[in-house]
Amino acid sequence: MTKWVYAFGAGLKEGSADMKNLLGGKGANLAEMARIGLPVPPGFTLTTEVCTAFYQNARSYPSDLAPQVQAGMTHIEKALSLRFGDVKAPLLVSVRSGARVSMPGMMDTVLNLGLNDDTVQGLAAMSGDQRFAWDSYRRFIQMYGGVVLGIDHHRFEEIIAEAKKARGVTEDPQLTADDWQKVVAKYKAMVAAEIGKPFPMDPTEQLWGAVGAVFGSWETPRAVTYRKLNDIPGDWGTAVNVQAMVFGNMGNDCATGVCFTRDPATGENMFYGEYLVNAQGEDVVAGIRTPQPMAKERAKAGEKPMEEAMPVVYQQLLDVRSTLEHHYKDMQDIEFTVQRGTLFILQCRNGKRTAAASLRIAIELAEEGLIDRKEAVTRVNPASLDQLLHPTIDPKAKRVVLGKGLPASPGAASGAIVLTADEAESRADRGEAVILVRVETSPEDIHGMHAAKGILTTRGGMTSHAAVVARGMGRPCVAGAGSISVDYTAQTITAGGQTLRAGDVITIDGASGEVYAGLVPMIEPTLSDDFSTLMQWADDCRRLKVRANAETPLDAQTARKFGAEGIGLCRTEHMFFDPTRILAVRQMIMASDEEGRRAALAKLLPFQRQDFIDLFRIMAPLPITIRLLDPPLHEFLPHGNAELQEVATTLGTDVETMRRRATELAEANPMLGHRGCRLGVTFPEIYEMQARAIFEGAVAVAKETGVAPVPEVMIPLVGVKKELDMTRAQVERMAQAVFKETGVTIDYTIGTMIELPRAALVADHIAEAADFFSFGTNDLTQTTFGLSRDDAGKFLPTYVDLGILPKDPFVSIDIEGVGGLMRIAAERGRSTKPGLKLGICGEHGGDPASIAFCDEIGLDYVSCSPYRVPVARLAAAQAALKAGGDRTV
Amino acid sequence: MTKWVYAFGAGLKEGSADMKNLLGGKGANLAEMARIGLPVPPGFTLTTEVCTAFYQNARSYPSDLAPQVQAGMTHIEKALSLRFGDVKAPLLVSVRSGARVSMPGMMDTVLNLGLNDDTVQGLAAMSGDQRFAWDSYRRFIQMYGGVVLGIDHHRFEEIIAEAKKARGVTEDPQLTADDWQKVVAKYKAMVAAEIGKPFPMDPTEQLWGAVGAVFGSWETPRAVTYRKLNDIPGDWGTAVNVQAMVFGNMGNDCATGVCFTRDPATGENMFYGEYLVNAQGEDVVAGIRTPQPMAKERAKAGEKPMEEAMPVVYQQLLDVRSTLEHHYKDMQDIEFTVQRGTLFILQCRNGKRTAAASLRIAIELAEEGLIDRKEAVTRVNPASLDQLLHPTIDPKAKRVVLGKGLPASPGAASGAIVLTADEAESRADRGEAVILVRVETSPEDIHGMHAAKGILTTRGGMTSHAAVVARGMGRPCVAGAGSISVDYTAQTITAGGQTLRAGDVITIDGASGEVYAGLVPMIEPTLSDDFSTLMQWADDCRRLKVRANAETPLDAQTARKFGAEGIGLCRTEHMFFDPTRILAVRQMIMASDEEGRRAALAKLLPFQRQDFIDLFRIMAPLPITIRLLDPPLHEFLPHGNAELQEVATTLGTDVETMRRRATELAEANPMLGHRGCRLGVTFPEIYEMQARAIFEGAVAVAKETGVAPVPEVMIPLVGVKKELDMTRAQVERMAQAVFKETGVTIDYTIGTMIELPRAALVADHIAEAADFFSFGTNDLTQTTFGLSRDDAGKFLPTYVDLGILPKDPFVSIDIEGVGGLMRIAAERGRSTKPGLKLGICGEHGGDPASIAFCDEIGLDYVSCSPYRVPVARLAAAQAALKAGGDRTV
Predict the structure, then answer these.
(1) Which one of A529, A662, B119, B270 has the minimum C-beta count within 10 Å?
(2) Mean of the pLDDT values across residues B405-409?
């Protein structure tokens, strides 16, 4: 005989957590709690196999199902000394669906099943509350009518509206027991008219109706579509859970509450929570009555802790707390109800907690011996570390939301609105806190972004210029806040009908993307000992090295502070935008021949060399990957007419010539244009200057400190091996020249970005000329998808909403597509050169899921914004632990 | 003993054509001619192994090399009854390098080697021409001094300049024997001063000097760089060829000439060529004397055919002609010299010919039994067929070149310059021939391009809008003629200092890219019976089907005329630009909600349906692949202010709203933007309208003619399977709706473009939802390389020049990169769905090398511009023949 029904509670332990395929997620969890001796309200689960059989047999149940369900009901009745359909002591049950994974489109819940015109009296008697009984009854009819009988919810709401109108009141709580009784009568009449027969009074008929509705909902169009989009096989089926209702509001020996086995805010090892006597679960959250604390220790004057009010039950709860922590080996969030002095646990799950609590709990659990250090490392969500490194909005603070954008760079900041980078700098120089607000930022705004406390843009995505640069600097940033509009002329910003002037104070929260008017209080970050301890444990576990993307001394110092093991991406073009250099850069661009370009580049050489000297001093002897010039030249030209005129004057040329050159350089698709090593090939003098600056800088630092830095020169946008051959030869020539001139030789390597699909495909050839590969996954994502990150905002959110893409591929690597190319590149590259060093320097280098993938395909390091380094260290450790013994490191 | 030297000529047959690795290309060819009995001047080849040994042994020769060289020289001396260094009858030789492949940077040729102060007298005596002898001598010193002794050529030129100044003349031919003798003296003095010792007088020393220079040139930086860029191994080495000099200018029993075994212009089977008595090879081409015909039959009045002037030698040449055609089984181009009545063949090779000759020769050779039909099919260069399908510039016509661009669409055309599409149309309507000249074209210019005889743009590449559309229409087009500038305001074009006004006549040659002032005479194409015959033979050989890219009835008719087996790409957006529709399209774009868009689309439906009815009538029952809307919406909006205003008025909106919408739609990288199925996903109503139009059109034609067309609906820019799931469902719903409404059901399929790297990588998934794949290799090339075809003009030519890329990847598929992805997609797609139909519809579908690749990876069809269909049929046949028995078709 097939076992179709698994009972739980009141001593029965037929299922367990590992039977999720058979019992569904919810059923398996209920069974597990029962199995470890928690007092869960008794119940039973109809397995997913019932669902499968139901559809295989033209929507009819197995013949031996009914007796097993009956046995399940009897189990509940006995456990609670109640009877299903009994007039005096009626058993009420809930019926819920429960597939392996939670799924929209499925029937959710019918509560209070078993109520009818007779049993409602029994409920009234047991609870001593007529109003509660009739309200429960009408809720049951409404739920059952909606989800089982398919009646539109408006039909029910109309009846309540009439009832309130008749009584001249506006809120549900103002209706009395009598009112609800009348509502029930009208509900029943309406339902009968709709379905052509009376509302079912027989509890068993009600039960089978609800069970049938759950199974039926497995094949609704919405559920089918969802499964198709999420690759969930149709033959998985759903389970059905039938469980006794318990009530915490049947008198003063009843209660309900929510508690945590440790303090979820601080992680302190003490019993934490709230409860209410004679109340329902929703009363605790509704805020009408003030919940009381659990432990005496936490009670303030006038409060009545449960420890004193219900000492016996409290003691039981302490036992439950201990059982749960030892069973789940983690802090638990528990919902409980006390019905007539009997404790029921309704739910337990790993408790949500702050990042600080997360660290403390993990470390203390390890120190208590419940888990080991490796396990502790897996317990902290890497992304949550952001909370510890940046100021956060005080959760208790009042705030006026002006608008919302993308959470582009974590942390919160307040300051006066400024609309230009220059003003940001000058006001910051005067000691003012400012927020730079721009439609979008460009490399010319870098100084203003540095000066500002935070950055707000109204256009652009998670990898827009503002977002990338802000993350690199550790500045909070909200990007692409489309509902806010900026008027540069009027010097105002407008949002939600409100207009603020430049100088007005706003607050941005880069973790949530919200923008607030005025100054909102914040909590400053402190790096606890727990943080260092966990980072140390993480470092002991990981295989991947972690580097930082950095180009300024400040970035480099931050990177070292956070434990970066080198620089994985130093973007040399950022150095070109400095006001002291941009003129020479523009002269270089405006030059009509190579000679002119060389003259301008000669002016840039000392600056660039000094940049590298500064970085090498900070980082030596750690490696520094320096990417040669990447963006198209037109990015360095001014755009507006006035600016063009100004630059023309400075350059001693006319605005027409400037404009013509700008037009010549303009590109239809700059992302796919004349940039990267294509510049190095067509204007070799640019890379020659940069290479000379690198080697002269390295030699200078080696002479000065005796410790030679290890420059790793990186050629961007290589798609063809010969591009690397040619540019590599340029760099090598410069190295030899500098070594000969200075009499000092240092170690260096030359490698390339892998950021074009073609480069990945011919990686075996490219590897012949490369000492290392660094995956540029921003551009690789753009080209693999044929998706411009600047333009994707128009449809990418829709794609994620519709489930066409599981995540924004600019945030987390698209493992199937982009990841497929990375796999090909890694394999082919190492087939030519087994020891080829592989890294990643795209924005994905700081994303935990992407880091796990990088670990899996055998990269040597990841590189990310300095402020993401701790996140990456932890994520790398978790990835290594997950890979476990499968791999020899 | 290693054989280092292979002799040829005068009865010796030591080498042959298949010994290219040992003898180099040139040596093997000389050996082959000797081997089949042709009278080549005797000589010998030092093998490539000598070169290898030379470098392996610190630049010293094998000890047994010298005796073998000496034996070779003796062989030559005996054959010609001359002696090397003899004062009376001196042997002179040429020394040439000859690697397996021709290679820049290698020493080329030293002629007349063996001359010195004594032997020059012998040469003068033998030739009876003092001036010739001294001129030959000074040429030898100059060549030897330059390539062997490394003396700058300016040093020699200075001396000649002085000599001419002294004589008061300006041209070399005005110098006398005495003058040259003085030049020789000065040369020798200058060389002695330069190298610190006298110019070598000993012929054997001269010989070894030249041989050493050839081997030395193998390792010059230029040769090394070239080998590196072209993947030529350094250990291949070069051979050295030493060959007797023969002279056609030693008297009236001497002659020199060039002839063809058949007429290279028409292919007629008759002996064709020109010769000159008592002349050197260069005299024939120099045009100072008028060459005479070979055959009596071809002689005009007053001409002296060789058949009469030198009947014995002529008869020998006829034998050579027959030997060569039977040996090489193809028409040969022969260079010969007659020295004192003895015939020498200096070179033979497959003769260049016109396309018409190529066809006729191939067919007649097959009919004569020299080759079979399959071989005949391989003999015609598919690309040359263009000549037969389009007017060509009369090669004899005089012309003034204004500028040069890319040969973007073959054929020549003359007409008045017009600078706008509207004017092109209105003047064409009045019967005028016009050439549309634009900086670049956009879809709004289509009507003007149709109306024009040809199109000239000053910007854009081989796959720019102008180029693609012109090829599709069969209009000649020169694109990207950067040296020509267009001034729309002044209504002029300027090129090479010349300014032409609108209305002035120009001629463009789309086959060469040249632009001429005025009307240049042309030759009109005629399709001969040879053409049909060869096409028929080709069709018997090929496996690949050939379709055409077509969207207008005219295109479709042309496609059928040229033998297309269906339409492989019908771009529906081209239909949107018609003036009768563009207004509704713009209303659709300006609509603020779905309802507004649907209203505008409803207006478009009847037009689009009629488009499809017209195409289906022409093509049924052949298949038609219809691509749903692909370009971003902003392409349909006007750009200029005036146009914006005009459209705003027509749409009943204001220009500000228009501008705002245009700004909203603007994209940083439109190529990677909101286009293709991304439009279908976000605005499903667009694809719904198009699908409805397709099915209503197909049903209408099925009802009307009884023959149902087979629409193949193609979804563009799919990168994620769910995109295809969703858009496929939209199309299927429309099909079902139309079938239900009309009561008629027709066959159709739904497939996708593979034009993004990601699509290729996940082709196994995508194939689940696709009935066919069509490779969109234009976009696939752009994304794989990260290369915008609109912007690549700034560096792609440099890339091809430097050998970084072998060819423009937009013209011929990049087999390693883009082809690698196509292979992955084909394999993965068919792993899911073995019968999956695969085709290509990018511009590469008409490129012979790309077609061969498509055949190799098992595509089912290629699709190309209508005028390329014959090219594709022939290329497909050649590909199948090349694959040969390796594959069961």
Answers:
(1) A529
(2) 86
CB A411 within 8 A of CB A475: yes
Would you state the torsion angle of the CA atoms of residues A525, A526, A530, A533, taken in this order, to the nearest 10 degrees? 100
Shortest CA distance to B662 belongs to which of B630, B689, B628, B632?
A: B632
* Cβ–Cβ contact B808 with A under 8 A: no
**B603-634 per-position pLDDT tens digit:** 999 999 999 999 999 998 899 999 999 999 98
B226/B232 Cα distance (integer angstroms): 8
Cβ separation A817–B667 shorter than 8 A: no
Other residues' Cβ atoms within 10 Å of the Cβ of residue B370: 15
Calculate ∠ Cα B31-B32-B36, nearest 5°: 115
SS3 for A579?
helix
Cα A308 from Cα B213, distance rounded (Å): 107
Torsional sign, CA B34, B36, B37, B40: negative
In one letter, which amino acid is B383?
A
Q: Is the dihedral of CA B116, B122, B125, B126 positive or negative?
A: negative
pLDDT at A886: 47
Mark which residues 813-852 of B lie under 8 Å from A by CB: 814, 816-818, 820-821
Cα nearest neighbour of A459 on chain B: B664
In whole angstroms, give the CA distance from residue B296 to residue B304: 8
Whole-structure pTM value? 0.80
Residue B794: band (very low, low, confident or very high) from pLDDT cuts 50, 70, 90: confident
* Residues in chain A where the model's pLDDT stays below 50: 886-889
Rounded to two decimals, the ipTM of the complex is 0.79
List the Cα angle A447/A448/A451 in 5-degree steps. Answer: 90
What pLDDT is attached to residue A285? 58
Nearest-neighbour CA in chain A from B183: distance (Å): 40
The radius of gyration computed from the CA coordinates of chain B, to the nearest angstrom, equals 33
Please, which residues have CB within 8 angstroms of residue B677's CB and are 6 or more apart in sequence?
A: B628, B715, B716, B717, B718, B723, B724, B727
CA distance B838 to B829: 9
pLDDT digits (tens, 9 = 90+) for B121-152: 999 998 888 988 999 999 899 999 998 999 99
- For the stretch B641-657, pLDDT in tens is 777 887 788 778 888 88
d(CA A491, CA A457) in angstroms, rounded, equals: 15
Strands across the sheet containing B492-495 = B484-487, B492-495, B498-501
End-to-end CA distance of chain B: 50
For the question of residue A254 being annotated catalytic, the response is no
Distance separating alpha carbons of residues B787 and A667, to the nearest angstrom: 11
What's the rounded mean pLDDT across residues B389-396? Answer: 83
Which residues in chain B have their CB less than 8 angstroms from residue A678's CB? Answer: 795
| Of residues A229, A670, A717, nearest to B669 (C-beta) | A670
Contacts of B827 in chain A (CB under 8 A): none
- SS3 string, B392-431, reads EECCCCCCCEEEECEEEECCEEEEEEECCHHHHHHHHHCC
d(CA A598, CA A826): 38
Give the separation between CA B45 and CA B31, rounded to whole angstroms: 9
User: pLDDT by residue (tens digit) across B282-334?
Assistant: 666 555 677 889 999 888 888 899 999 999 999 999 999 999 999 999 999 89
* Token couple for A9: 């509670």
| B732 contacts chain A (CB < 8 A) | no
Q: What is the spatial distance between Cα B318 and Cα A717, in angstroms, rounded to a whole number?
A: 60
Structure tokens given for B13: 């047959």
User: Closest to A786 (Cβ–Cβ): which among B672, B795, B814?
Assistant: B672
Judged by a CB distance cut-off of 8 A, whether residue B719 touches chain A is yes
pLDDT for the residue B283: 66
